[in-house]
């Protein structure tokens, strides 16, 4: 049932991840308050550190607003950043990107005292760092971006607790959840605004962030059910695998909400606050 866990995990990267992971549209470097020591650029436009020494942002691929193929350039830029995220970018405070962990996800089916309720905790996802950007649309005059991401495979593990009745079987209990999510796609929309700092550089901050995702192929189940209830385990596994897409639909609102919070924090704290916009798009 933790189908939606896919996104939860993926975007904590976006969170990740992800997950998210992953709205890599504008970027900036943190400036100091002392004009004599802040990072900046040389006359040639090369970034320099606090001592004035030139350095190379190896994880960036710069794009130009006037480029007729700017969306293709943004795809290359995002994938360059994602590829370096896999190895870690200590300069941005990004080290381990896997696994991606979400604290909690909820599922509710039916209403009333017999409605089925499940809580998944410590949702742990592997494979999100293999995401790539396969599409981009932009309006650079208003700093609006839409990226399409693809992740070949995400493996999920979580602890679960449930209560209520499911397919006429009392389903109160707990155990371990596992899921294999193949061919995952996500679309992320970002609107950002520009602002100036004391270093004279312009930076971005997130104004609006939306996302949706799909999983083409799902396999999942539960195991190690508390008290060794084999009847409950068999009933739940049958129900889960027969209704995987429906369960994913029910879980989406909770998953998207948590992913968006994580994504906004990642963008604003690790990217936008640390790299001036003109080092990404000029």
TrEMBL record:
Keywords: Biological rhythms, Signal
GO cellular component, one term: extracellular space
InterPro entries documented for this protein: Haemolymph_juvenile_hormone-bd, To_sf
Gene3D superfamilies per UniProt: Haemolymph juvenile hormone binding protein
GO biological process: circadian rhythm
Organism superkingdom: Eukaryota
Signal sequence region: 1-33
Family membership noted in the UniProt record: Belongs to the TO family.
Protein name per Swiss-Prot or TrEMBL: Circadian clock-controlled protein
């Amino acid at each position: 049932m933790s189908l939606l866990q896919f996104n939860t995990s993926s975007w904590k990267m976006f969170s990740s991840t992800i997950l998210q992971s992953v709205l890599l549209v504008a970027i900036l470097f943190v400036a100091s308050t002392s004009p004599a020591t802040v990072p900046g650029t040389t006359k040639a436009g090369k970034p320099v550190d606090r001592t004035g020494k030139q350095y190379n942002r190896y994880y960036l691929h710069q794009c130009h607003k006037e480029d007729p193929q700017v969306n293709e350039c943004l795809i290359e830029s995002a994938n360059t950043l994602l590829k370096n995220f896999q190895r870690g970018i200590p300069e941005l405070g990004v080290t381990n990107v896997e696994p991606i962990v979400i604290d909690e996800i909820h599922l509710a089916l039916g209403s009333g005292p017999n409605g089925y309720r499940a809580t998944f905790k410590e949702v742990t996802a592997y494979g999100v760092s293999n995401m790539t950007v396969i599409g981009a649309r932009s309006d650079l005059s208003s700093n609006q971006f839409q990226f399409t991401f693809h992740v070949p495979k995400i493996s999920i593990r979580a602890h679960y607790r449930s209560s209520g009745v499911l397919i006429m079987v009392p389903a109160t209990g707990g155990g371990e959840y596992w899921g294999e999510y193949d061919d995952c796609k996500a679309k992320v929309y970002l609107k950002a605004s520009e602002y100036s700092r004391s270093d004279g550089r312009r930076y971005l901050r997130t104004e609006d962030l939306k996302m949706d995702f799909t999983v083409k192929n799902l396999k999942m189940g539960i195991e190690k059910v508390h008290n060794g209830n084999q009847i409950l385990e068999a009933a739940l596994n049958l129900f889960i695998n027969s209704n995987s897409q429906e369960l994913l639909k029910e879980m989406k609102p909770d998953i998207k909400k948590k992913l968006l919070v994580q994504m906004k924090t990642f963008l604003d704290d690790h990217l936008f606050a640390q790299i001036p916009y003109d080092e990404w798009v000029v």
